[in-house]
Each structure stands twice: as C-alpha cells, then as structure tokens.
Write a structure and sequence with these properties.
Blueprint: H1 2-7, E1 12-15, E2 22-24, H2 25-41, E3 49-53, H3 60-69, E4 73-77, H4 79-85
Parallel strand pairs: 3-4
Antiparallel strand pairs: 1-2
Helix pairs in contact: 2-3
Length: about 90
C-alpha cells in the first residue's frame, strides 16, 4: 500500500456503494498500524484467531489488514450467512 500512496496519497482504496463513504490508501497506511497496536494491547498475538462479526463495509479492509498486520488470523462471521441458515 505504501507504494500506491507514494504515487498518489489520495488514491481511493474502498468505496461504500450505498453511502458513498470512501477510504484512501493513505488512511489505511495510517490507521492499520494504530489498530494493530490496539489489538496487541488487547492481547492479540502472532498466530491468534480473531473473530469479526460484521457485514461488509468500508471499515472491513481496515479491520482485516490490522488483524493480518498483527500476525493473527481473521475469522469472519457474516450476519447474512446466519440469516440464510434460517
């Protein structure tokens, strides 16, 4: 991501189709290490599994990348899947 930011620090990484909310690569480069540090403070370490229960949205890449940055594995649980199970 840092290479993308070098070329254009306002390059769009994610757009929410419903709300129009955008997140840039520059924002992700700034926020991922901060969120990763928060995960570390909460006790998340290398090889841990972190469950993330959420719909897809513009913060999903931030959460996903932060968990990977920490060296943990993301376990995504979608409420949509639960609804399909009935």
């Amino acid at each position: 991501m840092a290479k993308v930011v070098e070329g254009d620090d306002e390059a769009i990484a994610v757009v929410d189709a419903e709300t129009g909310k955008k997140r840039t690569f520059s924002e992700l480069c700034e926020l991922v290490p901060r969120m990763s540090a928060g995960l570390a403070a909460a006790g998340v370490g290398l090889g841990d599994r972190v469950m993330y229960y959420s719909l897809n949205h513009t913060d999903y890449p931030l959460v996903y990348l932060s968990i990977l940055h920490r060296g943990a594995t993301i376990v995504h649980i979608s409420p949509v899947y639960e609804a399909l199970q009935g």
